[in-house]
Amino acid sequence: MTKKTIPLFVIHLFVGLGAMAGGLAAILNPIDPLGAPLSLLYGSPFHSYLLIGLFLFAVLGLGNLLAALLITRFSVVGPLLSLLLGVLMMLWIIIQCVIIASIVALHIIFFLIGALQVVLASRSLHLSGAWSDLFYELTH
């Protein structure tokens, strides 16, 4: 791991552990996790927080922990996963805001964290030369 990957590593640990905690809470109590009322899901395709918790735990939680590990070992695969997870985080927040028809400060914060993941991962891919290689392969 280099000095340039430390911020991305820290973000992945923070997001991964937080998503696992929130996801586990929704899995263990799919009707009222962490005080989130079921009424927030009215009009959505969800009847409980179980599937939401599984996605949060497995994809955003374990995925970010895996990305933290991969960016310490692989200069291309790690940042690519980081980029994907940043985009997924932003989509997750947008979809969540649409479903509950509300935006609060935490939504904005986590959307910006996802955007920061995308920026840092893109920077890492650029510095490693992976973007150039990828675009070359796609155009030739």
Estimated structural class: mainly alpha
Domain module count:
1
Biggest sheet layout: none
Low-confidence spans: pLDDT under 50, at least 5 residues? none
Based on DSSP secondary structure assignment, what is the total number of beta strands? 0
Strand and helix layout:
Blueprint: H1 6-28, H2 50-73, H3 77-100, H4 105-128, H5 130-139
Helix pairs in contact: 1-2, 1-4, 2-3, 3-4
What does this molecule look like?
The chain has one domain. The chain is mainly α and 140 residues long. Helix 1 packs antiparallel against helix 2 and helix 2 packs antiparallel against helix 3. The protein is elongated and about 50 Å long.
What key attributes describe this structure?
75% helix; mainly alpha; 5 helices; single chain; 140 residues
Give a short synopsis of this structure:
With 140 residues, the protein is mostly helical. The chain has helices at residues 6-28, 50-73, 77-100, 105-128, 130-139. It has one domain (6-139).
